Automatic annotation (TrEMBL):
Reactions catalysed, as given in the entry: 7,8-dihydroneopterin = 6-hydroxymethyl-7,8-dihydropterin + glycolaldehyde
BP terms from Gene Ontology: folic acid biosynthetic process; tetrahydrofolate biosynthetic process
Gene, per the UniProt record: folB
SMART domains associated with the record: FolB
Pfam family, one: FolB
InterPro entries in alphabetical order: Dihydroneopterin_aldolase (IPR006156), FolB_dom (IPR006157), GTP-CH-I_C/QueF (IPR043133)
Organism from which the protein derives: Heyndrickxia oleronia
Name used for this protein in its record: 7,8-dihydroneopterin aldolase
Recorded GO CC terms: cytoplasm
Ranges for domain Dihydroneopterin aldolase/epimerase: 4-117
Molecular function per GO: dihydroneopterin aldolase activity
Amino acid sequence: MDKIYLNNMEFYGYHGVLPEETRLGQRFRVTLVLELDLQKAGKTDHLNDTVSYAEVYECCKAVVEGKPYQLLEAVAEEISKVILSGFPTVHQVTIQVVKPDPPIPGHYQSVAVEITRGQIND
């Protein structure tokens, strides 16, 4: 299967369990891997034969900057639902949601979740 990558998209959202996370908000980074057949697009050179990166970006932005969720897992699930329902040529999507600055003590670069979901009829 061919792949389209959208790497390290950055958004500002209000997701988290702690009250300050939902009040102050924070940055989130999202990376997507879309799996689909790109052969026709490669031959025709037409946008209609592939998935628009700009449209996928806007879908992710709407989720991350929209309704607050407590868990990164819920954010990732909602993104997968929107992508798979909005782009039926995508067979499978892998989503990584990164919280670079979670309000927890310790020394680390970030925390993240990653999920992979596919079309129901696959």
